[in-house]
Structures are given as C-alpha cells and as structure tokens.
Give the backbone structure.
Amino acid sequence: MVEEVNELAQSYGWPAVYEADRDMEKGRGVEVNWGVTRQVVLGYLESHISNDCCIVAVGKDPELAERVIRQMDDDLAGEIESVADLLTAIQDESDPRQLARSLVRAGFGAPREFDQSFFDAFVKAARNHAEYRVRDIAISSLVYMEWPEFRPVLEQIKERDPEEQVRARATIVLGAYDAAGM
C-alpha cells in the first residue's frame, strides 16, 4: 500500500520528507511522511505487528489536513476498510491471533473522536480477554486512538492485571498519553 500512497503523493507534488523501514520479528514496520505544504504533512504508518496501515494528515492547518485525508479516502476508496467493518471485526472475532490483528487495524482506523462502541470493544479486550497477549495488543493499539477516556481504564489495568507484561504495557501507554498532554 505504501507504493500506492507514494504514487498519489508524488502525483500531487508532495515530496517524501521522512522514511523509515523497520524489519521487526513479526513483520516490517514502515513510516513515510510527505510534505503537503510547510504547514501539513501526510503520514503513512504500517504496523510491524499486523502489516496493516493507516494514513493521517496533521499540521497547523486542520482544514487542509482534513481535505488531504478526504482526497486520500476518495483516491484509495477500494483499499480502505470501513469503520463499521473494523468495529465488527473486534466485536465478533473469537480466534486470539485474528483478534489481535483486528485490534491493531481498529486502533489505526478508529474514529478520531471518541466512539462509545469502539471504546467498549477495546475495554473488553484490554481488561477481560483470557489470553494476555490479546490484552497487551489491545492496550498497545490505544496509542493510535489517543482518547483520554481510556486513561482510567489504563490506570486500573496497570494496577490490577495479573500479567506483568500487560501492566507494563499499560504503564507505557499512559506515558505516551502523558507525553501527548492527555
């Protein structure tokens, strides 16, 4: 998918301003940013866990960033999974490996603003799933969402989860939330 996004960015005259290709144990993580203007950057991030990706536009001109994302949505219409499908996947998946992948995809593709259905599905996976690795991935995926409503849940998990790795992950995500001023 990075090739398709790069072709689109180049066709609009947006130069690549940052590229990182990581070869990690469970896949490869890719990050590329294109300079739309001096005020806005288009970013592509591919998960090293699931090899799924997300596209974001950020900068000092939120209206332009929103237009860029809408344009990418239009240009990549056949490639983008709907928010409803992302939510259904995390609500209905029973296989732990597939659920973990679905959680990463849903973290990437969740609505920017708080959504109660996504919140409830992530809380259920992060708090209650029997497999600690699923809880860990659910918590890791909260970094992409940055909803302050998750903070009390993370605090609770940090104090009460029976698995040290899950408690540590909650602590890391809380640190990321702190760094983001949330």
